[in-house]
Amino acid sequence: MPVADAEVAVLIVGGGPVGLTARALLERWGVSALLVEKHVELSPFPRSRLVNIRSMEIFRRLGVDTRITAAAFAPEYGRIRFRDTLCDHDFATAAMVGVNAPVPESPVTGVVTSQDRLEPTLLAAADAPVRFGVELIDLTEESDGVVALLVDRRRGEETRVRARYVIAADGANSTVRQRLAVDTTGPGALGDFTTVVFDADLDRWRARQPAGVYFTAHGGFGPLYPEGGWSWFGPTPEDAARADWPDLVSRALGPGAGVRAEVVRVQHWALNAFVAERFCHGRILLAGDAAHAVPPIGGLGMNTGIADVHNLCWKLAGVLHGWAGSGLLATYGAEREPVAHLTLRQAVANTRLMVEVMNRRRDQLRTGEAASAELELPWSEGYFAQLGLVLGVAYRSGAVLTGGGAPPEPSPGSTDYVPTTEPGHRMPHLWLTRNRSTLDAVGEWFTLLTPDPAHWDQQATAPWPVRVETLPEEHTDFCDLGPDGALLVRPDGHIGARWRERPPSGSALRHAVAAVTGSASP
After folding, report:
1. Which of 33-47, 79-93, 397-411 has the highest mean pLDDT?
2. DSSP three-state, residue 140
């Protein structure tokens, strides 16, 4: 048995948004964690640009949503625009619903912000130790834990850390996934792309017609920060090592731009599309791009990873604190793997639609139509909100008591979100008081929402953390509850059980929480 130099409850591998969110969530649960990141600092590249509604709901619970919004673009940047070159007029445009303005389905609004602006906020959201420049190079599974071999690349020192569990959030090229020999399914690598971060005076285009992304025939452009900075992204040229990046970006801006790009940094990356064959391998759990890599069109990748660890961390806390059975962790894969496959199909569909738009434009120009003619988009106005996928996902597992019926699965490409209190679904946003949502009642505990708290308060629930909240009577019909019914909401905001009427047994709540957490019968 390898001798460990240190011990921790959870080792998090990877310091991107997914790993940093897991660190903050575990700290809220009182679980000791260590995060290691092979790079010497947070990424200086913009990477993911969209924080969607569901992620912002999670960040609201962590108390960082206002800081994220303050550093992000104004809502009017929640839009994509299609142009021949950046300085041309739009030939098509589409709103990012839920980003460009509030929606009634959530107490928060998504934002356009760069990943390098998001990560410092997430890093500051917890005090658990972080070791930059430290890479995991091997790991050994044991019956009661995992021993990870780490190397500090700056000092050349090797250390061993024993963890009860490991969260692998180390990206699409995950060392952990490769060490475990976990295979992937899906298209795989779709091509090589390059992002160029540059400075140029482009405010006169951005100010008139703001957008989070401008798609052109010469690549995509995105404003990076409210105070300035831009990125260009497109297929990597064949001789990338000799590429004149300032000239390439300047030509992509178009002859009417009249500016030359000052290149700050260049990053090459592979466009991947896959889902790991399994998310759970003993005490090691894959999350984020290590578990699923999806094309960036639609902004689903990072947000799906954040939802992964939101699903996972309360389960880890329950097992480590002793109020959940170890089998609860198996529901992580059962619940999140189907979501990953849906998300991948959606992202691939998004990419195909983008290609269709550009092909239609080429046909339009080839047939001599006026360059200013608008192009009819092959999707509805709400398409890129994808609220049916982002908010409408239904979990099916032993951690959901469905009463014999399985919750419906959202269809790929679903734009519409229909709020429901069917077990397995996210608890709909309803106002409990003027500024307090049902989602604000969810935290490091199970929440019982009921119009009759006096009855349910009498039921003993130890050792499980349970809080009883009053559901205003005006919401009972919407929630499909009688005057003494109740909803049991899991710590991740998904409904674990529902009683339309008060059950005859005085221990119904206790039995339900025990079943959801995979505990021994009370």
Report:
1. 33-47
2. strand
DSSP, collapsed to helix, strand or coil, labels residue 467 as strand
Category of 187 on φ-ψ map: left (φ > 0), alpha (ψ -120 to 50) or beta: alpha
DSSP labels for 84-109?
SSTTSPPSEEEE-TTTSS--TT-SS-
Spell out the residues 6+ positions from residue 140 whose beta carbon is closer than 8 angstroms to its own. Answer: 2, 146, 147, 149
Tell me how far apart the alpha carbons of residues 347 and 298 are, in angstroms, rounded to a whole number. Answer: 7
Residue 230's DSSP bridge partners are 198, 223
Whole-number mean pLDDT of the chain?
90
Distance CA(259)–CA(237), nearest Å, equals: 22
Q: Smallest Cα–Cα separation from 480: which of 452, 494, 499?
A: 499
Amino acid at 52: N
User: Which 3 state secondary structure label does DSSP give 468?
Assistant: strand
Nearest Cα to Cα of residue 122 among 81, 64, 43: 64
Q: Kindly state the average pLDDT of the residues 223-229.
A: 92
d(CA 407, CA 30): 32
Q: Which residues neighbour 90 within 8 Å (Cβ) at sequence distance 6 or greater?
A: 81, 82, 83, 209, 374
**Residues 6 or more apart from 97 whose CB is under 8 A from it?**
103, 381, 382, 384, 385, 387
Rg (CA), the chain: 24
pLDDT digits (tens, 9 = 90+) for 317-353: 999 999 999 999 999 999 999 999 999 988 888 788 7
